[in-house]
Amino acid sequence: MRDKVQSIIKNYVRNYESVGKVETRWKEPIVAFADARDPMFNMLKEVVAPSHALPRDFMADGKTVISYFLPFENYIPDSNIGGRKSSKTWAVAYVETNTLIASLNFHIKKEIEKLGYKAELIPMALSFTPENLKSDWSQRHVAYIAGLGKFGLNNMLITEKGCCGRVGTIITDLEIEPTKRNQGEYCLYKAGKNCTRCIESCINDALTEEKFYRDRCYEMCSENGERYKDLGSCEVCGKCLVGVPCSFVNPMKN
Ligand code: SF4
Ligand code: SF4
């Protein structure tokens, strides 16, 4: 089943580029699986917010959370290196990937139902408001639990294909063996090595070694959201994840 679900996701993304009339290009997705009853989910109520949801809030008898990373082709992050404003290519990729995630999740649900199981969709940016600046379903934290990657100093999830891309999740009552979380850090700084490239790239003083200033980051993302409002909802920035050692790879393996 593990291979079957991975194929469903990889094939859909491969074909989406030709049928979806989209500009964005993605590399092959990475897929990981979390046990929906993993006690680590409870910790998100402390780490993210007391109101953070649990898998059982979406499906009482859910067994597996499927988490996937859709990595952007290199030209997209490369277009966003330098300057203050986000590149249009980066903004388009954000909007188009959100649409892809919604459509991919519908497809996964349909395919799982064909196998005789259930799947439930989880709203993107659940309960996110400009006041709280947090979602009650943090895709990145869930992806961490699923073993998809580790957090970097830039507050992003670093996967085996870096951090330039988007994460999606869906829950099912199909039992799939959980992915093992790797030991050790993926971020050079966190591993005690000499790297603060993401801090140096931040254009609104939102990242420091001590703290991530969520409000300053949101201010910058809103500025780009206003700039690219014709594209749809696209509060983006991403300067701290482009042109850095963890953009496309797990830098601890290079
Ligand atoms: S740029 Fe360096 S310090 Fe920042 S997240 Fe990536 S590896 Fe870690
Ligand atoms: S997204 Fe932009 S403002 Fe936010 S931390 Fe990264 S570089 Fe700074």
Short description:
With 254 residues, the protein is an alpha+beta fold. The chain has helices at residues 2-19, 40-47, 55-58, 75-79, 88-114, 139-145, 197-201, 214-227; strands at 30-35, 64-71, 119-120, 150-151, 157-158, 165-172. The strands form 2 sheets. A 4-stranded antiparallel beta sheet has the order 1-2-6-3, sandwiched between helices. The chain has a two-stranded antiparallel sheet with strand order 4-5.
Describe this structure in words.
- The model has no long low-confidence stretch (mean pLDDT 93).
- The two termini are 32 Å apart.
- This protein has one domain.
- The chain contains 8 helices and 6 strands.
- The protein is globular, with a radius of gyration of 18 Å.
- It has helices at 2-19, 40-47, 55-58, 75-79, 88-114, 139-145, 197-201, 214-227, and strands at residues 30-35, 64-71, 119-120, 150-151, 157-158, 165-172.
- A hairpin with a 5-residue loop joins strand 4 and strand 5 (157-158).
- It has a 4-stranded antiparallel β-sheet, sandwiched between helices. Strands 4-5 form a two-stranded antiparallel sheet.
- By secondary structure, the protein is of the alpha+beta class.
- It binds iron/sulfur cluster (2 copies).
- One iron/sulfur cluster (SF4) binds next to helix 7.
The ligands bound in this entry are: iron/sulfur cluster
Helix share bin:
25-40%
Shape: globular
Distance between the termini: 32 Å
Please report which band the strand proportion falls in: under 5%, 5-15%, 15-25%, 25-35%, 35-45% or over 45%.
5-15%
Average of per-residue pLDDT values: 93
Tally the beta strands: 6
Number of helices: 8
Q: Pairing-aware structural class of the strands and helices?
A: alpha+beta
Q: What number of structural domains do the residues give?
A: 1
**Main pleated sheet:** 4 strands, antiparallel
Give the strand order of the largest sheet, numbering strands 1, 2, ... along the chain.
1-2-6-3
Q: From the alpha carbons, calculate the radius of gyration and give it in angstroms.
A: 18 Å
H/E element order: HEHHEHHEHEEEHH
Low-confidence stretches: none
